[in-house]
Queue: 4 jobs
Job 1
Amino acid sequence: MASEERFHGGHFPKHIVLQAVFWYLRYSLSYRDIEELMEERGVEVDHATVQRWVVKYTPILEAEFRKRKKTVGTSWRMDETYIKVKGQWQYLYRAVDKEGNTIDFLLTKKRDKKAAKRFVIKAINHNGFPEKITIDGSAANKAAIEEFNSDNDTAIEIRQVKYLNNIVEQDHRSIKRITNSMLGFKSFHSASITLNGIELVHMLRKRQLQSQDNSVKKLADIFYSLAA
């Protein structure tokens, strides 16, 4: 599990750090909102410090989750949505299986065959090969999967049936609900890390963590367990 030492050495105890990070990734709150909530609980922490915690500790927690993520299905739904970074629209590639479980995600600066192929490679490296991938009418996504098949001598079936992609399109809403309150990210680096954290909490809500203690009902406690 994530090492205890990774959370030591700071001015604040680990449980305060994790609570602030969880609040930001789970709810539609700004860093200043969290600063105010902490102050109401007798903890004085600057909003910039909370931002540093999110950027520093989210990758540690995500890495621990990746080790314990449940296996996903082999019928994927792939799509992309828009995320504003530094005033410019960027693209968040996402995929879920037919049960709605999150497969993977990737923030990119462009929406083209190269970006789509990067996402496909990342998703397969983390989750294994799918039997089929359903996409909408995107020519770039279709070309990316076809090129992957050609490069790797695989035969992933490509289905272009828009209504079957409703699952992933609806799933975007849970991510956008959180990001819409953030009024745009200031850098691509922090946007990518923060989105990974939002996706992490979303997967925990879907109970995609292996060996999860069923007696633990609160989402926050499940999140904290990644740093146990």
Job 2
Amino acid sequence: MALDPQAKFILDLMADSGFTFEGATPEELRERMGMTAMPSPIELASITDRTIPGPAGDIPVRIYRPSNDAGLPVTVFFHGGGWVIGDLESHDHCCRTIASKAECVVVAVDYRLAPEAKFPAAIDDAWAATEWVATHGDELNVDTSRLAVAGDSAGGNLAAVVANISRDHEHVEVIQQALLYPVTDGSCDRPSMTENAEGYMLTRNAMDWFHDHYTVTVEDLSDPRYSPILSDLAGAPPAIVVTAGFDPLRDQGNAYAAKLVEAGVDVDLVEYEGMFHGFFSMDAAIDVASEAQDQVAAALKDAFAR
């Protein structure tokens, strides 16, 4: 499969602009990512910023409401960025899109970032936020019996781990997980890591850099909260897993979907062979991004209808 022409155009623009994840400090990368965030054209009924209690202080969240109807379903969203960069602004369009197309309230979580807060700080915040949403349905005016989790890249990692943790907590029932090109295996030894090591925005070296900033010890890589593919996945919530053909993380996502299937979990694996890591929010320039958004929204709506 060849690289999609629209995807190639975007990658060429990035290359010409000198955009890279490499050779910078976390602070510099955060600034670069902030400069690339574009205003979203999607209008919603309300968008509210607030904080909720967390294990190490208040956690900022942003609540996207597509309508003022009572009892809407809710999706807790975790942004990508290698656990080091990204925030509520970088994924604002992604969250607006999910809220609008899936007709659900989206609660985006601004979890603590590494290296200031290393593993498992992001997981601790992600779980605390999900638990808070699940137990504050009346305050949020949402139906917590229709609760999903979603995330892209490192955020997909957090969503997968939160979905697994929820199995042991009766008061938090996750009915669907939407994992967009997720990190699932800290070993990073799968073929796509070599095949797509350079030239497609996210690189093998960048992933090593992210891992080094997030982890504390080598043993962290084999912790199921870091590498959810090492978890017992029996009883995990149904999932939609989106992967991209020219993504170093492609084989991790595909392998995780396969392991979910082996565990008896209902999984929809959607492979966009001509795409690269991060394409999901680029619907203004890449037509396939809109298709991916529609498929994720359809999976969420189907779950909410069940």
Job 3
Amino acid sequence: MHILLTLAVIQTVLLIVPGPDVLLVSQTAVSRSRRAAVLAGLGVALSIGCWAGFALLGVNLIFQAFPWIHTAIKVAGGLYLLWMGFNLWRSSLQAGAEGGHSVVTAPLGDWQALRTGFLTNISNPKAAVFFGSVFSSLLGAGATPGLKLGAWLIVFGLSVLWFTLVAFGLSTAPVQNAYLRARKTIDRVGGTVMLGFGGLLLARE
């Protein structure tokens, strides 16, 4: 039980630390709708579940045997984050051109929101490396199937819970109204952060 509790603490800290996933769900919540933000968060959680599952199955060994696979995913992910950052900057310029009379953007379609969340997280293969190192140190080579399943459920369940809380907390009317008043600045900051994450992902070996 203490192994699973330790894993829960590590996963909670990992989720709370700001990154492209939190930024995406937050941006969707304040600029789109609660439903779109929840689905984007679910997409992120599904991707986290995939990486955690891959780690339990030993995908790190595949990355070590075929480094080009890791590199290809990393490059594609970096380009995707750069594209998202560019779109946020373009949105901020359009908001400025409208003279500040902005309204909350029409909600994303369910599939589009889910897909965007999934792609944002799956674009970083370092998640599999992270989970692989955590699982190997906490679970060990002799972990039972039940313990592995419990670890996966904790990672996935906490991810769903956290991003749902973010979606609900930031999609309230006061927060959305505050976003509308500062939309241009927020979009530019968010776009710059996304561009930074994408650039770092491409630059790291």
Job 4
Amino acid sequence: MTATPPNRWDERYDHERFFYGEEPNAFLALQLPALPPGRALFLAEGEGRNAVYAARLGHRVLAVDSSAVGRRKALDLARRQGVTLDYRCADVLADDWSTDPWTGQPWDAVVLCFAHLAPEDAVVMNARVAACLAPGGHLLLNSFSKAQFGRTSGGPPRLDWLHDLDVLRGQFPGVVFDHAVEREVELGEGVGHRGRAMVIEMVGRRG
């Protein structure tokens, strides 16, 4: 019988402290309050800091991630902050998250925060994200750009897993971007994201 390989995210999160901190990402903390409360999907959500913040704003939240440790910590963070969220421990590529499980309706908002996948997998997931948005639904995306390569402030150490702004624009059919920039920011998110970093920030709406 072949042993199940360890989940590297479980290993990363299996500490008392939150690897990326308990506060929401600064870009999302700015953008989420501008959205009307609705059905919100958070993919590759890790320890749940952003999903919990959205729940505090009144969104009905489903988080999806492969880490059971991340799920446990996210639900504990939600409890400590007096909110509830659903957290599905699953593979974001294999699982079906195309509709809100409570109503069967498409999503009012989808959030991708530092969701870095192999390039061929990212193309598939991003197309699915675009398709699962309700008309007028919002996409919020924050990720590391290719200019981050070689920096120690966060992100995958592989150039092909980092993002190109123009390429990302074309991977979400039917989504019109009101805001899409690449810029340098100062990150202070736990021990995982710390220092000057090159990021991509995008806000889009499904037509």
